[in-house]
Amino acid sequence: MKITLFHILLIYGLTATVFFIIDLVWLGVAAKEFYAKHIGALLRDQVNWIAAIFFYAIYIGGIQLFVLFPALQDDWGIFRTALMGGLLGFFAYSTFDLTSLALIRGWSATVVVVDLVWGTFLTGTTAAVVVWLVRTFLKFG
């Protein structure tokens, strides 16, 4: 498949939508009390939305570049796509969580483990769902 600017923008928007839906359910509902319990003293009263938007914009671009485009161009199966997405999530979330554990007083080892599992699941699931959606409904890749 030849990837055009149209594909890049369409897949980016689709990836952002899938990622946000899954992540916001986690952060807003499932894990809200968990993070408050384990690192509550370190949390801001209000989210720094500029930093959050930059993270999401960069990370979704990374999912596209390192997982989605190779999966669509080389016809990866859904399992391989989920695996490679999960590995990207594991590496990226490891960078943040293990650096935080190394440098931030009060950072929780429990948060590291839960966050690594979450980042692996979130990124792998997002990649697999987006590839499935693109192939099923957009009929390319």
Task: Tell me about this structure.
The chain starts with a helix and ends with a helix. The protein is 82% helix and 0% strand. By secondary structure, the chain is mainly α. Helix 1 (5-30) packs across helix 5.
Question: Gist?
Answer:
The chain has 141 residues and is an all-alpha fold. It has one domain (5-17, 39-138). Helix content is 82%, strand content 0%.
Question: H/E order of the elements?
Answer: HHHHH
Strand share of the residues?
under 5%
Number of strands: 0
Shape: elongated
Report Rg: 16 Å
What is the CA–CA distance across the termini? Answer: 6 Å
Low-confidence stretches: none
Q: pLDDT average, as an integer?
A: 95
Structural class: mainly alpha
Subunit arrangement of the protein: single chain
Distinctive features:
mainly alpha; 5 helices; 141 residues
